[in-house]
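Work Package 3 (structural annotation) set out to generate three-dimensional models for the target panel prioritized at the project kickoff. During this period the team completed the workflow that converts sequence records into discrete structure tokens, so that structures can be stored uniformly alongside our sequence database. As a representative example, we reproduce one entry of 423 residues exactly as it appears in the project archive.
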Amino acid sequence: MFTILTGAQFGDEGKGKIVDLMSERFDVVVRFQGGDNAGHTVKVGEDVYKLHLIPSGFLFNSRVLIGPGTVLNPEVLLDEISMLKKSGIEITPDKLGIDAKTSVIMPYHIELDGLQESRRTEKIGTTRRGIGFAYIDKIARDEIQISDIVDADRFMSRINELATQKEDAISGYGGDPSIVTDEAVIHRYLEAGKKLESYITDVSFEVNNAIDEGKNVLAEGAQGTHLDVIHGTQKFVTSSSTIAGSACSNIGVGPSKVDEVIGIVKAYITRVGEGPLPTELKDDIGTQIQTVGGEFGTTTGRSRRCGWFDLPLVKKAIHLNGYTSMALTKLDVLSDIDPIRICTGYEYNDSVFDYPPELTSQLLECTPLYEDLPGWNGDLTNVRNYEDLPEAARKYVNRLEQMMGVPIEYISVGPGRDQTFRK
């Protein structure tokens, strides 16, 4: 069975927690896009693991893979491997595989990212980790791949070929171009290559063989649907395609092999950085949701903007991904709020829409229209069964399911494994 899992909002929906919960029944978990601009948190008992690159299935017997559609900072990956080793978790080449064609994030990508964002009059909110510039090089055929940094001669040949181009680009932004050919930086990357060489594999070959052998494979996406570089809220998006269809192209698996697509959605909505968020709450309720939900970015630590559940955006996510089921996270955060609101549509230029407008500039000007439901009181974090939720919470879940037209399979009321249960 081949399953794809993506976020249905703007990222930070709790994908890592759901993947960790599901990983026990998957033989292979593969990351198919993004870089260390994404973060996921896995909590087991009192242990909390904050990761950016290693797929969430590392705690079980799953083989975890980083596909060629990702961009990889090798030093960040090695830091994660070292961090887990200190916790008693060995990430060996038998456990983790990295596709040979995975693009490497170079220091000059990070430099260019920061310089460009600093000069923008309208900020995007980039994490300044070089993700976008690494993807630019992939598309321009100027990338350095993970297979290059394991071979000193090939690596230096690529650096020499690209040096003038990158130095000119950095100089054009007013930066210091010496980072491109800095001997200490080159040495660090070659050392990283030596450490990662044994992890290199052919991810497409592995995944297709696993599917053909009847094994269960889970493709794990990063960020969320509306940060998709094509279909998201341009220009306030990430640099890769975050929707389910890109899992096939980015891993190298035919779409006919997909069996199910799972969407992760919060019981409300959040967004990090700039861009439209029609239901954003800039009042005490927004502050309450942010505080109770711990809405601060895993990668950047930035506070997340919070708002009511936005049905039009989720409808579009359902169309873009073809979800067969949903997981609803952070239901517990909405306790002690009354009423609880669901955005059912927008008003724009004296017209009403139940689906997002195509243009980001129009979405920025939309006024949300709401349906109000009664709230509930009390702590839900000790609930372990759907039937034990307060009646008002069950009505809220059922109403969301009815409006989305896709079954909610999982409900989460906290970060722990035992705090997520089937509906």
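The mean pLDDT is 93.
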